[in-house]
Specification:
single chain, 3 strands, disordered N terminus
């Protein structure tokens, strides 16, 4: 599979995962080894810090898809959520971590009037609450919570330095997509 071909063929993975992964890879595309990235060298959003045994520079899209499916999609069961919520939570989890992303979801649920605790765990109660919420309202609230998270991160990262400001525009774009 070359980089020009689809990342995750539908015959290998569920359609919801393929669509969610394409969204993630829109933001997490090429190889970076920039200063300020705590993950170190990163490609397709997969960091050397998280996967020290991988040759990140030579990671293929197909390998990234397999990692995201096994270590993210299946592990956190994003497919059990309503489709747009699962896809958005997957994207946020890749970027800010599953705990912070799930806190955003739990706060969004509360904003939609669905009672749920805020523990950062994507468990049965949170999944059930997400299934009961009105999907469009929940997605809007989740985007808003993510934007708030990113704004706070930019303001507090390195004491509100230009580094945080530099990333904020892209983070907000990601939050609202």
């Amino acid at each position: 599979m070359t980089d020009a071909q689809p990342t995750a063929p539908a015959d290998l993975y569920p359609r919801a995962f393929v669509a969610a992964l394409e969204r993630v890879l829109t933001d997490e595309s090429g190889y970076t080894a920039g200063i300020g990235d705590p993950g170190g060298p990163t490609k397709f959003g997969i960091s050397q810090r998280q996967y020290p045994e991988l040759d990140i520079a030579n990671l293929t899209r197909a390998q990234a898809a397999a990692i995201y499916y096994r270590d993210w999609w299946l592990r956190f069961d994003f497919g059990a959520l309503p489709q747009p919520i699962g896809a958005k939570l997957f994207d946020l989890s890749v970027n800010i971590g599953p705990h912070a992303a799930t806190l955003c979801l739990q706060r969004a649920l509360r904003a939609c009037g669905v009672a749920v605790g805020e523990d950062g765990v994507l468990g049965t109660l949170t999944r059930s609450a997400a299934s009961r919420a009105e999907c469009d309202a929940l997605l809007a609230a989740l985007r808003s919570e993510a934007a708030g998270y990113y704004r706070l991160l930019a303001a507090t990262r390195s004491g509100g330095s230009r580094l945080g400001e530099r990333f904020l525009r892209g983070w907000l774009k990601r939050a609202y997509e």
